[in-house]
Amino acid sequence: MPAVTADTLTLPRLPQLPEGATAWRRVGRVVTAKRHLEGEGFAVRRPFPGVDLSLADPFLLLDHMGAVEYAPGEAKGTPWHPHRGFETVTYIIDGAFRHQDTTGGGGLISDGDTQWMTAGSGLQHIEQPPPELVASGGLFHGVQLWVNLPRAQKWVAPRYQDISRRDVKLLSSADGSSLVRIIAGSLDGHDGPGLTYTPITYLHATVAPGARLDLPWPAGFNALVYVLSGRGTAGPDGVALDEGQLAAFGPNGDALTVRAADTQPQASAQGWEILVLGGRPIREPIARYGPFVMNNREEIVQAFEDFQAGRMGVVPAEKIPHRSSQDETI
């Protein structure tokens, strides 16, 4: 798994949280992701939506793509399509993906890079594997998260953030055994590079086999842990959590604890790979249809009318320069 590795002994460390004096959050529910086909026919695992969205608010959707070893000609993406009212965050762990949108944003991301697209008032975009991955095949693994926008920000101008793997904030666990990558938000005073309209924290952790990872957590945020690969437990009660499963924690407490199993599958020999997500719930009405997420039905109807009238950009977009992260060295 090439997504940003580092010598954890050289990194800033998270604090050692006192066992008896810490209010640990307990797991309220475990959800197993369901399989869906997206775009031009690529498979994803989706833990939400499909459950009570209040458990995930302000998040709307999480798609886990792969890990898959594509044969030549198998890699697929999405055609041009519109969005309005939320943000898409695509994090590539292995392989590469190319994005382009009708406002001129886009680029190639790979191996630890993130593209953060704020659809806001509306645009169109396309996401495709690069030609070399289609031609030769290869390993591909990534996730896409949809982050809702509050009513007051649903009409902001579209924005694109190209977050290089160089920019991700790296920390280690208190004992130095596990690696934490902060993509957005703050953890123990350490800030990730992603700029957000909705207050969230989004991180990817590799928890060493048999190790425990304790995370201070904002009292006003919800908390979710999704397993990318491997197995472990979540919460002070040790609730089992395997690949493709999501733990939704309860609202009470100011810290999270997880532990990797002593033995891991071969694909996770370096550690248990998890996403940890949380945010301040928006608690506003959600009207959702296809690629649009607004607050009421009238706004959804308006979104379709605006799209059909060409008010969400023109395809094909003007050619834009693409940063090739594969050409960079770390």
UniProtKB/TrEMBL annotation:
Keyword match Metal-binding: yes
Keyword Nucleotide-binding recorded: no
Domain of life: Bacteria
Binding note for cofactor: Binds 1 Fe cation per subunit.
Designated name of the protein: Short-chain dehydrogenase
Cofactor: Fe cation
Lineage: Bacteria, Bacillati, Actinomycetota, Actinomycetes, Streptosporangiales
Keyword entries, A-Z: Iron, Metal-binding
PANTHER family: PIRIN, PIRIN-RELATED
Record organism: Sphaerisporangium rufum
